[in-house]
Amino acid sequence: MPFKTAHILKFAFLASVLAGALASVAAAQADYLPLQVGRQWVLRLPASPSAVVFTVTGENGGVYSVDFDNPWIKSVLELRPQGDKVVITGVTINGQHSALPANTVYWDFGAAHNATWQNSIGSMTIVSRTKTVRAPAGRFNNCIEIRETNQQGNQNYWVFAPRVGFVQFGEDKVAFLLDRTSEGAASRTQPPPPATTPAPAITSGLRIGLSVNPFATEKYDGSSIEPHFKQAVAAGISIVYISPKWNEIEPKASEYRFDSVDADIERAVRNNVPVVCDFRVIDTNQRAMPTDLQKKDFDDREVHARLLAALDALAPHFRGRVRWLMIGNEIDPYFGGHSREVSAYARLFGDGAQHAKQLVPGLMVSATATVGGLNQINGLLRPIYSQSDFVGLTYYPLNADFTVRGPDTVASDFARMVEAAAGKPILLQEVGYPSSTRNNSSDSQQAQFFQQVFDSLRRYRNNFIAANFFLMADFPDWLVDQFSRYYGSNAERFRSYLKTLGVFDDQGRPKPSWKVFQQNARSVQGM
Q1: Quick check: is 118 in a domain?
Q2: 50 or 119: which carries more pLDDT confidence?
Q3: How confident is the model at residue 388 (pLDDT cuts 50, 70, 90)?
């Protein structure tokens, strides 16, 4: 198997795991109606002075009073958030208060598309979970639209944007659209937080990460990730790495899904950790672009416009956590076979990088290459990396047949990285090493590799921004089977490579590399 093919399989696999099998199970429900006392939404009918105004005027025992001022009948709604649901406990109309039956679900933001539920008011239906609303306050993506049909057959339409709340009331030409909120004018895509939330202030110094996944003996879902993320934090991680694919966050033109991004960012927010994000426009050996853009040139006007729009939509979900952004994952294998496309991609990259920095002041932008493609950074890929603020790399010292090179090659590999970066800081997006004897490795050799990486990071600490180690736990056999079938290879050496990248084995037992990680993660950062 040629060396390039080995890397293509390997990195495509890593990307699919990070953005698919692991991230999707941890998806979190966004807050579609953030209720705080004093918050206000003003919605206006275009070309008319008429307005609908929602104001949160008080809170008592978890029940919020929301004044609903409109051109017809003023009322007060009593709302209690309950997980993904909002329960209405009572309503006051023209001074007359009416209590509603216990647990009357008014809006269910966790319900599936076309789901319907009944309450004492009438029938509620999820009309859309991906609606885009263009309002005076900006454009809002991934909105949930709920149709209310009361007992008399009259209909109301409520539209909510994630972490914003009310953005539309009514439908079609008589729809009231968000004009402003109590937080001030909304950003172009989604307020608050505004897309211009600055990147977190980061003191200089090396940062360490570890890609966290459930253990093979556990249920493969988000609840299993949480305790291991805490383990990683306790061991000293100081970054979180995420890698959304463009065609996964935008499955249809201008319709976005950020569930997995929101879950990862929420975890980073809770632990006050900055985030490294690789936005995969290219993913190793292929384009990761929306289907309708796949065959268009990188410098096509629509491709440029859609990339900027996708960044507009993505930036508010960063919530001030993302400090480093890569536009393109392991791009050297792709351009190795499509060298004539480099100039066009360089123009797309430049526009995307400039726009992202406007959205997130203080952001640093690059693209990611493999260590195997170091010689291309100042060669074929120079038009791209000449515009970058740092050099993003992935590091897996593999031979073409999925055997590993010895840990004694780490020092020379790091020297080559520093030389190729030519003075720019380096961010190691992924660092990994299998432990199987089938790959000419072992548990102790994996530990030696980790130690050599930490030693080289100490030697070159002024040259490196961060290093993210992959992976916390070996994959279960069923997942290895799944990926083997996907790639059409059941070769034992390929399977063992996939299986043994973790610092814990498939029974949840720590390998020696976990001890090395614990001993070095904090000290190498000067903690």
Answers
A1: yes
A2: 119
A3: very high
Q: DSSP characters for 283-311?
A: ETTEE---GGGTTS-TT-HHHHHHHHHHH
Q: What is the CATH number of the domain that holds 520?
A: 3.20.20.80
Asked if 143 and 230 sit in the same domain, the reply is no
Domain ranges, residue 113: 40-181
432 and 467 fall within a common domain = yes
The pLDDT confidence band at residue 194, using thresholds 50, 70 and 90, is very low
Helices 512-524 and 443-459 sit at what angle, rounded to 10 degrees? 10
Q: Are 103 and 87 in contact (CB under 8 A)?
A: yes
Domain shared by 395 and 495, yes or no: yes
The answer to whether the beta carbons of residues 200 and 274 sit under 8 Å apart is yes
Of 236, 230, 234, 239, the closest CA to residue 202 belongs to: 239
pLDDT at 483: 73
307 plus 246 within the same structural domain: yes
pTM higher than 0.85: no
Is residue 193 reached through a cis peptide bond, with omega within 30 degrees of 0 on the bond before it? yes
Helices 3-16, 492-499: inter-axial angle, 10-degree rounding: 40
d(CA 112, CA 339): 44
The SS3 of residue 415 is helix
Q: Is 71 helix (H, G, I), strand (E, B) or coil?
A: coil
